[in-house]
Amino acid sequence: MHTSIDVTMTVNGERVSRRVEARRHLIDFLRLDLGLMGAHAGCEHGVCGACTLKLDGQIVRGCLVLAAQLDGAVVETIEGLSDNNTIRDLQDAFIARNASQCGYCTPGMLMTAADLLASNTSPTRDEIREHIS
Ligand code: FES
Q1: CA distance 63 to 82
Q2: How far apart are CA 55 and CA 1, in angstroms?
Q3: Coil, strand, or helix at residue 81?
Q4: What contacts 78, CB < 8 A, 6 or more positions away?
Q5: Is 25 in the pocket of ligand 1 (CB under 6 A)?
Q6: How far is the CA of 59 from the centre of ligand 1 (A)?
Q7: Model confidence over 71-125: pLDDT tens digits?
Q8: Average pLDDT, stretch 59-79?
């Protein structure tokens, strides 16, 4: 028997309410329940960063957070940042420097890079490496 829990949260500025399985991770909730396919599930144990999201203003791994714990939370995904042009310059820079590579983790890289630039507008290479890692 699976336990389900009602949650209401704000995702990319929109209030959403759903009944979720207690063990459903945030990344799966966003992709499977809300159809937000930007972030990906890769390693599913917090290492690769493909599932990176913002939760209550903090960068998190979506594969390590349970959706059922997030009643009242504020979640931002790559779709939200992209749709409101928050990361336009960053996206252009990734394209110009072919930084996307295969593209699978690019949304997580963009989320993390945007998070760094929000607190440090001129990071050193070491600071970029440290933050992305
Ligand atoms: Fe790899 Fe979450 S899927 S860190």
Answers
A1: 21
A2: 29
A3: helix
A4: 38, 39, 107, 110, 111
A5: no
A6: 12
A7: 999 999 999 999 999 999 999 999 999 998 899 999 999 999 999 999 999 999 9
A8: 98
